[in-house]
Amino acid sequence: MTTLRARAAFALTLLGATALAGAAALPAAAADGSLDATQAAQQNYTPVPDFSALVKQVAPAVVSVDVKLKLDQTSGGDDSGPPANGLPPGFPQIPGFPPGFPFGFGFGPPQTPQAVEAKGSGFIINANGTIVTNDHVVKGAKKVTVTLDDGDIYVAKVIGHDAKTDIAVLKIEAGHPLAYVELGSSNDVAVGQWVIAMGNPFGLGNTVTTGVISALGRDIGDGPYDRFIQTDAPINEGNSGGPLFNQKGQVIGINTAILSPSGGSVGIGFAIPSDTINRVVTQLIQTGKVRRGFLGVSAQQITPQMAQALKLPGANPNKDGALVAAIAPNSPAAKAGLKPGDVIIAVNGQTVRDPGDLAADIANIDPNGKAEIKYLRGGQQRSVTAQVVEMPANPDASFQQGSGSQQAGPQQGALGLTLAPLTPDLRRQLNLPDDASGAVIVGVRPNSLADQAGLQPGDLLVGVGGTDVSSPDDAIAAINAARKAGAGAVALRIVRQGQALFVGISLGGGGGNGG
User: Fold this and answer.
1) With left for phi above 0 and alpha for psi between -120 and 50, is residue 8 left, alpha or beta?
2) Within a 13 Å sphere around the CA of 451, how many CA atoms are in the beta-carbon half?
3) Which of 57, 236, 332, 340 gives 386 a disulfide partner, CB atoms 3.0 to 4.6 angstroms apart?
4) Range 452-489 burial, b when 16+ CB lie within 10 A, else e
């Protein structure tokens, strides 16, 4: 290593000597502007954005949030509430070190069952002291205090919080008007724009980092309505709840999560879009809770094989709509005439690329509002208007299977499936409701077409394409009909562990009575 460094230094020395020697051999030409490299650089210089004036203006509205957690929220016995180390999700604890190492966060010794403190960030959105932060920052809080940029400290009240979007609203009583920031429109954000992140990383107090918008609409699997703004502005533990500003000083997002193997910033951070913030915060202030629209569909992503089975157009099936896997009885979707197998491609003029888009678009419709839905059925585009209702407390309970059950003997076919009727014994084993019907997959031959498609014993086959199935004979008849019609693949509608989904399976070009 020493030798390499010595060689590098020697090489740099030689380059310097060569340049000096060349300069000494040339006649002086300082008056010749063409040789003035500094002047040429200045003429072509594009200044890097200076955010100092913006930061000075908005900094008084950015706050630090200190949370004293309830003891039962720090036990780590379940997934409710913050983890035992007090760090927000996505920030791993270093094995062998106390919580918060190497920075002091006010955590008690790990062996002592004392109250645990955590730190986050937030921002004031009106002169009355209303503050926005992350739900995971204040979840399970026993006491919340807020520190302003000038050092003043206030006890904060949690007005409301929403776990599904990870947004919470606090309120402090300062006794005088406070500086605040405005929400911009995240719909106007574009990839490549400069942004400024502010917050309280590692408990250090107000800190400013800058970067650009790296991507939009990111789904990181953190919640049902993930549509994060991705930025390379450094975001670290403690930045959670802090604002992401555009160059106008408007908040376009809440800094919420990072993707990192170490817990520190590696240039991949995520912020909740301001359009989501605006809708959720307005409802939390007014009622303390969030009301969402409910259509009554369970949807899944479209795979290339599924696109072939359903005869769907499009070069990118994974981003070409949301496949309806199930319809809740008596739901707005059922009343509007939507069916399993339909592919929803737009809601109120907004393109639906995948199930996440569909979930977010419907949830953002006010209950009793209307949803103009464009969808594909049998390769043909159609449209329908549905009047959404308020999302029930347990929307999954709205989905049930049809009634009735027929008896038939087990069947095995060329696809590698063994089907059996849904007997009372199988119904109990699979924990199915009394009104469920279909054909139970009790065997899948290894390396068969069914195995390759991912079908599993215990799956309940309830439909073949658009045809409902209530017995093994129904299933075999529908599969054979699809084969005779020349279909290269067919979509099987199944129920697996209570979830309805489609599975595309190749028919393999064979004939016979396979199922």
Assistant:
1) alpha
2) 9
3) 332
4) ebebeebbbbbbbbebbbbbbbbbbbbbbebbeeebeb
Residue 342 is encoded by which pair of tokens? 């339909």
320 HSE (CA, 13 A, CB side): 20
Q: The dihedral of CA 313, 316, 320, 322: what is its sign? A: positive
CA gap 293, 371 in Å, rounded? 10
* Lookup: tokens for 391: 């999302």
Domains of the chain: 60-91+114-171 (2.40.10.10), 186-287 (2.40.10.10), 293-398 (2.30.42.10), 411-506 (2.30.42.10)
List residues with catalytic annotation: 136, 166, 240
Confidence (pLDDT) at 177: 93
Instruction: Give, in degrees to the nearest 5, the angle at Cα 478 between 477 and 483.
Output: 95
Distance between CA 104 and CA 118 in Å, rounded?
Answer: 10
Q: 417, 454 in Cβ contact below 8 A?
A: no
Nearest partner of 180 among 131, 138, 143, judged by Cα: 131
Q: Residue 46: which H helix or E strand, with range?
A: none
User: Which residues sit opposite 326 in a β-bridge?
Assistant: 298
Q: Tell me the CA distances in angstroms from 411 to 353, 407, 419, 482, one per residue in order.
A: 38, 12, 5, 18
d(CA 343, CA 202): 46
**pTM as predicted:** 0.63
The sign of the CA dihedral 226, 232, 237, 241 is: negative
Place of tokens 């992503």: 301
| Successive 10-residue mean pLDDT values, the chain, 515 residues | 38 32 40 60 68 88 88 44 40 40 38 68 93 90 90 92 91 92 89 89 82 85 80 84 90 84 76 90 90 86 72 64 82 88 88 86 88 86 90 68 34 67 77 82 78 84 86 84 78 84 71 34
Distances, alpha carbon 515 to alpha carbons 407, 418, 476, in Å: 16, 8, 5
136, containing H or E segment: helix 135-138
Residue 66 three-state SS? strand
Number of CB atoms found within 10 A of residue 407's CB: 11
Three-state DSSP class for 364? coil
Q: How does DSSP classify residue 34?
A: G
CA separation, residue 196 to residues 115, 178, 266, 508 (Å): 34, 21, 16, 55
